């Protein structure tokens, strides 16, 4: 599978709208029959929608999503809907029917580690395969990549990022930090205005995804109706259940050719339950971090024991490796300087004048 434009059947080329300067510029109309190319269809012809779907690798991309992503049923449903819409639009275009390019700027809300960035990567590939985006690459940024520190700094910074993202997906993590109502001299507003202009002028060539916590995003949209009106899809990423987290961890271990012994699997289920209620819990990312530490403890155990080891020994995580976690001995709250236990929820709203966003949960967690 390729995201290169050459890999796509030319006959499916989506009609591109003229660059629109105004927010409510009219949607593009049906292409003229001449513009449809040799694969255009007459009014009495039919087209095999299943075959076309396969030719565009849609089933393969969707099964990859199902295989790699545990849970997230509502998210997957929305991706399927978007893929279906774009396919139908392409087919309509071949019959000369109006196939207005839908706006696909999106907002992904959810707790840390629920898969927002990972899905943005998949989305880029899918949109490239469907001919909606030229390249489908992901450029992931935060406020610091976009907003400058002095007069004249923000516009070039924001535009440089936008240019890099053209043809692909621009993911703005914790987009609400762009807006600082408490600081009149903040350059975030300038950045938002440039973004809005670009989202409109280059909507044929860029998908912007805003990501972050739902409640803060709602506040941001209330203060920035221009941004809210340009976001067509709001996708909420639910927190994972214990069973889903265990499945995610198993998938990760499997990919790295490790496995839990039966006793380790029991211990790991206990670990997940405990870890969820401790500070800086970050869903699937916490599973990734837990696995990194399991590997460390396994390695230390094997090296300390010495002697000969088998392939199976090198693959197996033991119950002792799991139970060596601090989560079992008083929890992460026992770490000096670490906040107390309890579900962390979103980090506190930053004080006025705050520059850098707060550390992400489980981004620099102590040895859990
Ligand atoms: N549903 C899932 N199934 C399997 N692995 C997942 C799933 N969701 C996320 N992961 C894995 O968890 C890790 C964190 O995911 P990701 O970075 O996409 O989360 P995020 O929502 O963007 O987090 P943040 O809000 O902190 O930016 C990645 O290693 C990713 O592959
Ligand atoms: Mg992310």
Descriptive notes:
It contains 14 helices and seven strands. The chain is an alpha/beta fold. It has two domains: 5-18 and 48-237, P-loop containing nucleotide triphosphate hydrolases (Rossmann fold, 3-Layer(aba) Sandwich), CATH 3.40.50; 242-329, Helicase, Ruva Protein, domain 3. Strand 3, helix 7 (188-201) and strand 4 form a beta-alpha-beta unit. The model is unreliable at 1-37, 335-345 and 348-356 (pLDDT under 50). Magnesium ion (MG) binds at residues 116-117, 173, 211. The site of magnesium ion has 4 residues, from helix 4.
Main beta sheet, described? 5 strands, parallel
Order of helices and strands: HHHEHEHHEHEHHEHEHHHEH
Name the CATH class of the largest domain: Alpha Beta
The CATH superfamily label of the largest domain reads P-loop containing nucleotide triphosphate hydrolases
List low-pLDDT spans: 1-37, 335-345, 348-356
Class from helix and strand fractions: alpha/beta
CATH-level-2 architecture of the largest domain: 3-Layer(aba) Sandwich
| Helical coverage, percent range | 40-55%
Attached small molecules = adenosine-5'-triphosphate, magnesium ion
Instruction: Provide a count of the helices.
Output: 14
Q: What best-fitting shape do the alpha-carbon axes yield? A: globular
How many strand units?
Answer: 7
User: Rg to the nearest angstrom?
Assistant: 24 Å
The rounded distance between the terminal residues' Cα atoms is 38 Å
Strand order of the largest sheet: 2-3-4-1-5
């Amino acid at each position: 599978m390729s995201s290169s434009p050459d890999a796509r059947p030319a006959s499916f080329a989506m009609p591109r709208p003229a660059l629109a300067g105004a927010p409510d510029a009219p949607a593009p109309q049906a292409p003229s029959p001449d513009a449809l190319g040799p694969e255009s269809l007459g009014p009495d012809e039919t087209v095999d929608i299943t075959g076309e779907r396969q030719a565009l690798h849609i089933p393969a991309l969707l099964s990859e999503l199902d295989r790699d992503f545990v849970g997230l049923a509502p998210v997957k449903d929305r991706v399927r809907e978007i893929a279906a819409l774009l396919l139908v639009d392409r087919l309509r275009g071949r019959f000369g029917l109006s196939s207005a390019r839908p706006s696909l700027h999106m907002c992904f809300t959810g707790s840390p580690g629920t898969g927002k960035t990972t899905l943005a990567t998949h989305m880029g590939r899918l949109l490239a395969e469907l001919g909606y985006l030229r390249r489908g690459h992901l450029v992931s940024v935060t406020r610091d990549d976009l907003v400058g520190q002095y007069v004249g700094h923000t516009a070039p910074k924001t535009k440089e990022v936008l240019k890099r993202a053209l043809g692909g997906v621009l993911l703005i993590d914790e987009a609400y930090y762009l807006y600082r109502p408490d600081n009149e001299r903040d350059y975030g507003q300038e950045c938002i205005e440039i973004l809005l202009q670009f989202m409109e002028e280059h909507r044929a060539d860029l998908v912007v995804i805003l990501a972050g916590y739902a409640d803060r995003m709602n506040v941001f949209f209330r203060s920035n109706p221009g941004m809210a009106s340009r976001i067509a899809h709001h996708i909420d990423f639910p927190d994972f259940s214990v069973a889903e987290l265990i499945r995610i961890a198993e998938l990760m271990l499997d990919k790295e050719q490790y496995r839990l012994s039966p006793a380790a699997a029991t211990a790991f289920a206990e670990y997940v339950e405990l870890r969820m209620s401790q500070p800086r819990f970050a869903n699937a990312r916490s599973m990734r971090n837990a696995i990194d530490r399991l590997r460390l403890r396994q390695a230390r155990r094997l090296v300390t024991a010495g002697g000969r080891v088998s392939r199976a020994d090198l693959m197996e995580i033991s119950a002792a490796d799991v139970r060596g976690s601090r989560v079992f001995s008083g929890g992460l709250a026992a770490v000096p300087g670490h906040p107390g236990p309890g579900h962390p929820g979103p980090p506190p709203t930053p004080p006025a004048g705050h520059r850098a966003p707060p550390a992400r949960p489980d981004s620099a967690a102590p040895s859990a």
